Amino acid sequence: MSTGESWASSHIARETMRANRSRDTGPEKALRSALHASGLRFRVAARPIPGLRRTADIVFRPLRIAVYVDGCFWHGCPEHYTAPRANSEFWRNKVEGNRARDRNTDELMDAAGWTVVRVWEHEDPLLAAERVAALVRERRAAEEARRHSPRTARQ
């Protein structure tokens, strides 16, 4: 873009986009609140893999679980995404780029032994929290069983 050109088609669109938060969004806060109410503790807006410039919304570091709350517009939700008519090519490329980065993040996290949970912003935060909590409990039980197995106790 040359100087003076904008990615937003109007002043109103530009202000709307600037108002979008990259963290502490309503859906993130609702999910965190539900997880906290269920007794879980976690890191917020943390990089699971040091040196990798990818920030997860919620991180259970010892269990290697990273939760991303994806916005329907920014991540191209198959149920709710509608492409803007203005600057349509720009927004198509932007959303496709975000989705490609999400896939790459999932692959990198998986290769490093992490489990990624993706939650759409439109999902019920209580149901999403139950899904995440079940995974956390499962991982904790497996870790506890591993620690108390006769084989690892002798080592």
UniProtKB/TrEMBL annotation:
<dbReference type="InterPro" id="IPR011335">
    <property type="entry name" value="Restrct_endonuc-II-like"/>
</dbReference>
<dbReference type="InterPro" id="IPR004603">
    <property type="entry name" value="DNA_mismatch_endonuc_vsr"/>
</dbReference>
<keyword id="KW-0227">DNA damage</keyword>
<feature type="compositionally biased region" description="Basic and acidic residues">
    <location>
        <begin position="12"/>
        <end position="28"/>
    </location>
</feature>
<dbReference type="GO" id="GO:0016787">
    <property type="term" value="F:hydrolase activity"/>
</dbReference>
<keyword id="KW-0540">Nuclease</keyword>
<dbReference type="Pfam" id="PF03852">
    <property type="entry name" value="Vsr"/>
</dbReference>
<protein>
    <submittedName>
        <fullName>Uncharacterized protein</fullName>
    </submittedName>
</protein>
<keyword id="KW-0234">DNA repair</keyword>
<comment type="similarity">
    <text>Belongs to the Vsr family.</text>
</comment>
<dbReference type="GO" id="GO:0006298">
    <property type="term" value="P:mismatch repair"/>
</dbReference>
<feature type="region of interest" description="Disordered">
    <location>
        <begin position="1"/>
        <end position="28"/>
    </location>
</feature>
<keyword id="KW-0255">Endonuclease</keyword>
<dbReference type="GO" id="GO:0004519">
    <property type="term" value="F:endonuclease activity"/>
</dbReference>
<keyword id="KW-0378">Hydrolase</keyword>
